[in-house]
Amino acid sequence: MKVVVSEIPRMGLSLDEASSGAEMDLEGQGISFLKLVHLHAEVRRQDASVEVSLAIDSALTYTCDRCLQKVEEPLARQLSIVRPAKGEKIIDITQIAREEIILEYPAKRLCRPDCKGLCMYCGRNLNHLSCSCSKGETDSPFRGVWIPDKKEKE
After folding, report:
1. 49-63 and 70-84: which strand pairing?
2. Fewer CB atoms inside 10 A, N or C side of the chain?
């Protein structure tokens, strides 16, 4: 969705677009989209600036970093952007939306803030059941390795 600044009428423009996450180059790094990314933009031009009111609506899915469960999350964002009218010939609203969506991606992907993850010994999801495996009694290649603490090094 590209807008030529000189062709924006005084009363403004109302634009709608729907694209897949793949078409917008948003999928990857464990994130995919469950439905199309809907964009609705209201574009107004004033003397020295262009104002874009943008609504983004979609839903994404990713895998929890701790327990490996699939998470589905809605994506709804409203924003307003003001750009200078002089010097810009074309405003790429799809690119603006793409950048905003990427900024909304969770830095740490969790199914919930208090996710307990998986048991490091048996692999059980600790959010559903408590673990009763014999912790520490696994056949580890590091078992019996002595690591000195700070006091012993001196």
Report:
1. antiparallel
2. C
